[in-house]
Amino acid sequence: MQKLLAWVDQRFPLTKVWEEHVSKYYAPKNFNFWYYFGSLALLMLVIQILSGIFLTMHYKPDTSLAFASVEYIMRDVPWGWLIRYLHSTGASFFFIVIYLHMFRGLMYGSYKGPRELVWILGMVLFVALMAEAFMGYLLPWGNMSYWGAQVIISLFDALPFIGPSLAEWLRGDFVVSDATLNRFFSLHVIAVPLLLALLVFLHIVALHKVGSNNPDGVEIKKKKNADGLPLDGIPFHPYYSVKDTVGVAGFLILFAAAIFFAPEMWGWFLEHDNFTVANILQTPPEIKPLWYFTPFYSILRATTDDLIKYGLLPFVLALTALTLVSVRELKTKGIVVIIAGFVVAGFFGLEAKVWGVALMGLSLILFFFLPWLDRSPVKSIRYRGWKYKTALTIFTISFVMLGYVGTQPAEGIYKMCAQIGTLVYFAFFLLMPWISTYDKTKPVPERVT
Amino acid sequence: MGKKNVDPQRRMLLQLTTAVGAVGAGFAAVPFVSSMTPSARARAAGAPVEVDISGIRPGELRPVEWRGKPVWILRRTPEMLASLATVQPHLVDPKSQVKEQQPDYAQNETRSIKPEVLVVVGICTHLGCSPKRELEKGTISSDWEGGFFCPCHGSKFDLAGRVYKDVPAPKNLEVPKHTYLSDSRILIGVDPKGKGAA
Ligand code: HEM
Ligand code: FES
Asked: pTM, whole model, 2 decimals?
């Protein structure tokens, strides 16, 4: 055995990689519950790929066969129902894990330097994962699949100039059709999964270069012992490999419970309208995406003329005034005024529909810029003042609220809530420079606690 | 990178080669990108559809499929036609001035060739759902005059497919090209003779 290893090591850096990334990779000793979700996300990716491979053995990407082939998997393929539920329930669990993983980043300031690239790669992963889930949802060719895809692809139609031809190019037809189903299949089973795998690799490489953050937001690399090892670090293996295994076991219990007792989660994980085949003549009475898209979908729906006039316009003017007061350089002031001018002109010149799409895009883009919007000298919420804590609490509540109202009809109180939630969402990011600058922070300890 | 040992001529050649390579890669992408546009078969599939409308009773709507989209044929009753005037103040474009939403011959009070027969594409101009038919008065709210309601994001249209104010959909529903072959038969997807380019 020893000889074999030596033989390999002369030809491939096996021991070196193992030590660098596992057995001698030092992670902070104070990881808590929230640090489970990275390894759980990895587990979910593996589960989705494995179950997907077996589904692909029976599924048929053809509008006249797709729906029936899924029913066939559910009824006639031995254990087919389990494989399908692993995959469909797995998608929702994947997003639960990812949202918690991201929330951890917000709490402990993990996006702040030197981890900006870990965060950005994470956001690219998030967007790719959304694309993967969206395309997967068309495949069963249920009625919600069809109309959901129709609505989302029409979003691109709204873009000025290039919109219509872009939407046509995505669909490969003038409406969602067999061509669309076939290409979504191709992208869903091979293109995006390959991209995800590559991105996860880069995410981890970037993380291991800078090392993990921790619930105290203290850089463990600053205090090292005589051997150059971080005083507050412990090797990933065996300490965290064992801890993560416990996390996996606990998680799998919940996951199995969902699969066996409530795989559809009363319409939350698999929508009722998707149990009928796609009908080109009939939109389901209420169209809604699955829960993990609804916060962003709510922002899209909330953007009507009144929101622009009574919400966004005053918001942009106030933000401009605030920026003008805060920046000193004349050139910066000029740029700010010009940008604000364009935005305000756009409020009057462009249809609300275009703004809906733009804001939905912006709501994701802002996440990428969080490392630079947050000016606080401390990372972890433990040492931040009340301003950031309040902002994060309100943001989290309104994000969940946006998610909920996105599943309800866009009328009355739901529409109001969506509009308020939208303003809160943007205020959180765009006011972050001020919130974090004026927040009174507590002293951060030298070592982790 | 130190600039000391760089041979400027070789460096220039290297940059040139890279640039040519990048252009080549760009050209190589063309077939792949183009392969995703609608195929010849998809383009040819837009054949016109013939419908016998004699069986449609007053107040009844019949959906038919044309180019993969739902097209509605609604025979309006006199009360329905009367409502078109009542709702005018609440509409975005009551005079159907947005050109591309209907052919010239349907740019009129009823948005149709024959006043009672409405032919529209049943696809919301917001994001492409198919609105629900709420043809009866008072179904959505007490002052509802009848029309179409899009469940996706709450857009409302009147019985001529004209969009109400303050809803996400920006434009009236599209009236497709259509022509009467006889009193009871229409052809969807073709302009009436002599009215070619609409
Ligand atoms: C397929 C999806 C993803 C996988 C498999 C994944 C995997 C991981 C793993 C294994 C870790 C180390 C363990 C841990 O800190 O929990 C990690 C850390 C991290 N991830 Fe992800 N991740 C994914 C998506 C994301 C997303 C969407 C974001 C946010 C934009 C993100 C941001 C981060 C950050 C900031 C860290 C460092 C956290 C710290 O040190 O405190 N990741 N990720
Ligand atoms: S698609 Fe009809 S209102 Fe949005």
From this structure: 0.89
